[in-house]
């Protein structure tokens, strides 16, 4: 019994050492700087659909927000997804707030994505879930939500995390924050070239997020972002959210 336990613990520590070694190699991969011109050496895949908008909800939802959301989506045929991202609120309350927003999205064929919680996504029968690195495993989400669910994963500025997410069955990988943002504190700041690297090597769509505005989005679209995830620049747009969406829609490469 003791011998078996010792053998098991020896093999476990061997496995851990091996795993640590593999992680070191992957971390090294991220540490090796990416040639900013990497993607320029390859032809762009002209078959890739134009870049779309992925709206992230404002941090608080007021009574008229369903109408605001509808007007924003209707402003231009460029909104592919809406993420309900509410922090510090009880899940029952989020579920109540979600229903009318989910109906707005469903009637417009906009994917309704729940942030953070696989359980809430399941309860709402949402189109998908967005998982941060601490929010759960994409495999667990797939198991719970089924084959058609859209599962997104935050990958910060890491090629390694993105490849891991792809292997785990994610439907998109999200890189960011590309720019300063007042929406949340951020510590990772990728270069646009990570989007070019990703789209050159992989078909899985990429999402760019973090402080994106109509004025700074061009390099992200040109680099190959499949989606721009935007909160502040739409909901706080000086001439209103619909005008904010139109300003993104007018950019080259959006459609
Ligand atoms: C599309 C998209 N990308 C990244 C995030 C950030 O997710 P996470 O790292 O879990 O941080 P929080 O949003 O939970 O604060 C996202 N929500 N959506
Ligand atoms: C949720 C999130 N994750 C990284 S930056 C960010 C905030 C996105 O909002 P904004 O478009 O207002 O910067
Ligand atoms: Mg999260």
Number of domains: 1
The distinct ligands, each listed once, are: the ligand Cc1ncc(COP(=O)(O)OP(=O)(O)O)c(N)n1, 4-methyl-5-hydroxyethylthiazole phosphate, magnesium ion
| Series of H and E elements | HEHEHEHEHEHEHEHEHH
What is the CATH superfamily label?
Aldolase class I
Determine the N-to-C terminus distance.
65 Å
How many β-strands, per DSSP?
8
How much of the sequence lies in strands comes to: 5-15%
Strand order of the largest sheet: 1-2-3-4-5-6-7-8
How does the overall form come out from the CA principal axes? globular
Low-confidence stretches: 1-22
Fold-level CATH name: TIM Barrel
The CATH class assignment is Alpha Beta
Describe this structure in words.
The chain is an alpha/beta fold and about 260 residues long. It has a single domain (about 5-25, about 45-250), classed as TIM Barrel, CATH 3.20.20. The chain is built from 10 helices and 8 strands. It is globular, with a radius of gyration of 20 Å. Magnesium ion binds near residues 115, 116, 132 and 135.
Furnish the topology, listing elements before pairings.
Blueprint: H1 2-31, E1 52-56, H2 65-74, E2 79-84, H3 91-106, E3 111-115, H4 118-124, E4 128-131, H5 138-145, E5 150-154, H6 159-167, E6 172-176, H7 193-201, E7 206-209, H8 218-223, E8 227-230, H9 232-235, H10 241-249
Parallel strand pairs: 1-2, 1-8, 2-3, 3-4, 4-5, 5-6, 6-7, 7-8
Bound molecules: the ligand Cc1ncc(COP(=O)(O)OP(=O)(O)O)c(N)n1, 4-methyl-5-hydroxyethylthiazole phosphate and magnesium ion.
Residues 115-116, 132, 135 line the site of magnesium ion.
Enzyme class: transferase
Pathway: Cofactor biosynthesis; thiamine diphosphate biosynthesis; thiamine phosphate from 4-amino-2-methyl-5-diphosphomethylpyrimidine and 4-methyl-5-(2-phosphoethyl)-thiazole: step 1/1
Function: Condenses 4-methyl-5-(beta-hydroxyethyl)thiazole monophosphate (THZ-P) and 2-methyl-4-amino-5-hydroxymethyl pyrimidine pyrophosphate (HMP-PP) to form thiamine monophosphate (TMP).
């Amino acid at each position: 019994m003791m011998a078996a336990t010792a053998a098991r613990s020896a093999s476990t520590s061997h496995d851990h050492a091996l795993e640590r070694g593999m992680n070191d190699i992957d971390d090294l991969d991220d540490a090796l700087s990416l040639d900013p011109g990497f993607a320029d050496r390859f032809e762009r895949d002209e078959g890739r659909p134009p870049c779309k908008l992925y709206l992230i909800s404002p941090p608080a939802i007021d009574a008229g927000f369903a109408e605001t959301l509808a007007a924003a989506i209707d402003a231009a045929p460029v909104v592919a997804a809406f993420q309900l991202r509410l922090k510090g609120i009880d899940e029952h309350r989020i579920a109540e707030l979600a229903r009318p927003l989910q109906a707005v999205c469903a009637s417009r064929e906009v994917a309704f994505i729940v942030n953070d919680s696989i359980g809430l996504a399941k309860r709402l029968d949402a189109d998908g879930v967005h998982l941060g690195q601490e929010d759960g495993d994409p495999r667990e989400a797939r198991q719970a939500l089924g084959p058609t669910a859209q599962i997104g994963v935050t990958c910060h500025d890491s090629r390694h995390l993105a490849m891991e997410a792809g292997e785990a069955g994610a439907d998109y990988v999200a890189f960011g924050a590309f720019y300063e943002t007042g929406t949340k504190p951020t510590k990772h700041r990728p270069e646009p070239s990570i989007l070019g690297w990703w789209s050159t090597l992989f078909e899985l769509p990429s999402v760019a997020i973090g402080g994106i505005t109509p004025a700074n989005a061009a390099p992200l679209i040109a680099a190959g972002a499949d989606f721009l995830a935007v909160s502040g620049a739409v909901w706080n747009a000086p001439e209103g959210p619909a005008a904010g969406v139109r300003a993104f829609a007018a950019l080259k490469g959006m459609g």
